[in-house]
């Protein structure tokens, strides 16, 4: 039997889902909670593992490909490494920290008032620290190929302009953050409760698909912590010259995704206006 709720039933019984209240802008009380620091540790470790596995895959592929053009996991394998690790790590950490593992995702959720400013800033710091440590491990284990083969740093590829690279990062991050909002939407969970949806799966697939499209242009950032960690450890002039693209693009993409989901798909602006009209000051 279908569990879909008709409009008439919804009107009679009320909403079949519950939107959590907006997170406070400054929630100083979080600083007193062990769960807050546990979430920071989870974000740090998850981002460390993400960068270690993915950058090691990139360097390993380039090393094999340099010896034999037919060797290595190829673009498809690299995309799978990034998407697969996001699926695994979001699944493991979603119940502890929300499984952001990406400052752009954190920024988008902050704009939608899903997390406080204090939590958002702390997440971003720990994500970047985790990324640095993860890439540092790759360099420690694979020093010679790491230094020789680009360090997994994001750079604008030859033949592409900065504007093209910026556009690719904006669109790629939009796809990712839009998927995060859709996969975790309580309204979708209620409406599609008869179709089990494991949220980390579509999020991982979004990362996979974006990598397929964007690796040839920028190596695919869509995650400022990933780009920052690789730039810090590789420390190359070209990587630093292009680095602004991998912050500005993802943050703009996250902003656009948050606005689209909240104000177009969820009609937050119309709901707010309706509430204002029914309860005038």
From TrEMBL:
Cellular localisation: Membrane
Keyword set includes Membrane: yes
Membrane topology note: Multi-pass membrane protein
Key word Membrane present: yes
Transmembrane domains' residue ranges: 36-60, 72-96, 116-138, 197-217, 244-265
Gene Ontology MF terms: channel activity
Keywords: Membrane, Transmembrane, Transmembrane helix, Transport
Record-stated family: Belongs to the MIP/aquaporin (TC 1.A.8) family. PIP (TC 1.A.8.11) subfamily.
Listed name of the protein: Uncharacterized protein
Species of the source: Aristolochia fimbriata
């Amino acid at each position: 039997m279908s569990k879909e709720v008709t409009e008439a039933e919804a009107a009679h019984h009320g909403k079949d889902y519950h939107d959590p209240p907006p997170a406070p802008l400054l929630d100083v009380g979080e600083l007193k909670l062990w769960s807050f620091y546990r979430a920071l540790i989870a974000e740090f470790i998850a981002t460390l593992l993400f960068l270690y596995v993915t950058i090691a895959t990139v360097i390993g592929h380039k090393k094999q490909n340099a010896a034999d053009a037919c060797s290595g996991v190829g673009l498809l394998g690299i995309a799978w490494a990034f998407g697969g690790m996001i699926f695994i790590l979001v699944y493991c950490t979603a119940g502890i920290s929300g499984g952001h593992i990406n400052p752009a995702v954190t920024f988008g959720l902050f704009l939608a008032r899903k997390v406080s400013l204090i939590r958002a800033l702390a997440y971003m710091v720990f994500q970047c620290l985790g990324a640095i440590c993860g890439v540092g491990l790759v360099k420690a284990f694979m020093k010679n190929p790491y230094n020789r083969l680009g360090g997994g740093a994001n750079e604008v590829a030859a033949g592409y302009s900065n504007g093209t690279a910026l556009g690719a990062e904006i669109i790629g991050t939009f796809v990712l953050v839009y998927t995060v909002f859709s996969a975790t939407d309580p309204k979708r969970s209620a409406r599609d409760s008869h179709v089990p949806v494991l949220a980390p799966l579509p999020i991982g697939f979004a990362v996979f698909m974006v990598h397929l499209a964007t690796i040839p242009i920028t190596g695919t950032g869509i995650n400022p912590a990933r780009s920052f960690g690789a730039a810090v450890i590789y420390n190359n002039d070209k990587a630093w010259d292009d680095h602004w693209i991998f912050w500005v693009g993802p943050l703009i993409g996250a902003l656009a995704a948050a606005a689209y989901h909240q104000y177009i798909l969820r009609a937050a602006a119309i709901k707010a206006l309706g509430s204002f009209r029914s309860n005038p000051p």
